[in-house]
Specification:
226 residues, 71% helix, globular, disordered C terminus, transmembrane helix, YitT family protein, transmembrane, YczE/YyaS-like
Length: 226
């Protein structure tokens, strides 16, 4: 693969990471819950006040990266350590976007649906770009890929189960530490139900454009399976 093509794909991937961070910040700002993948990290901000969502997102993703290494062992490719800077950018991006929106007041309950739905669209676009870049995964998606590979199960099925496990973990931690459920509301359900479909829509619309501007990437060069 030519260098400019590889650089383009990494640019697309990291652009998706930044947009995904913005999407999560918007969904959280709505005050109606957060995305499934961020649910455990978000609940931890209630358990340990003063520690940011980005910080806990980083810790969750580092744990996911460690799980990948344990699952894949010698099959874990060194190139996938680039998930580390991607995770730092993602986590810092969440905190940066949150900080930039600090003075924005959502207002009455109906107004909260505006940032929630906008965040779902932006998160879906970000995830689509990460997939279309076809060079890396963020660690939580990477561990899903590793489990799928090792279990010979379909990626989408494992992804759904993984997201569900994150929400259930968040509920358990919230109840055990706080005595009630915090940070998980109707927005979490909406995000879980819509982001996947939005991402699929953008992948279909943008995929042909990407194919025209870059060369085809050999999946064996970037897959955690190789």
């Amino acid at each position: 693969m030519q260098r400019h093509t590889l650089a383009c794909r990494y640019g697309i991937f990291f652009g998706g990471v930044v947009l995904s961070a913005l999407g999560i910040a918007l969904i959280t700002k709505a005050g109606l819950g957060t995305s499934a993948i961020s649910s455990l990290a978000y609940v931890m901000t209630f358990v340990v006040p003063g520690v940011s969502l980005g910080t806990f997102t980083l810790l969750v993703n580092l744990a996911a990266l460690g799980a990948q290494i344990l699952l894949l062992r010698r099959e874990f490719r060194p190139i996938q350590f680039l998930q580390l800077p991607a995770t730092v950018i993602f986590s810092a991006g969440i905190d940066l976007w949150t900080y930039l929106m600090r003075d924005w007041t959502v207002g009455a309950y109906p107004m909260g649906w505006i940032p929630l739905l906008a965040g779902c669209v932006i998160l879906g676009l970000g995830v689509a770009l990460e997939v279309l870049g076809d060079v890396l995964y963020l660690p939580c998606e990477g561990v899903v890929k590793a489990i799928s590979y090792k279990s010979h199960a379909e990626f989408g099925t494992i992804k759904t189960l993984f997201d569900l496990s994150m929400v259930l973990s968040a509920i358990v931690v919230s109840v055990l530490c706080l005595g009630h459920i915090s940070g998980l509301r109707e927005g979490t359900i909406v995000a879980a139900a819509t982001v996947g479909g939005i991402s699929r829509f953008f992948r279909e619309k943008l995929g042909s454009l990407l194919d025209r501007t870059t060369e085809e990437t050999d999946p064996s060069e970037v897959s955690v399976q190789s």
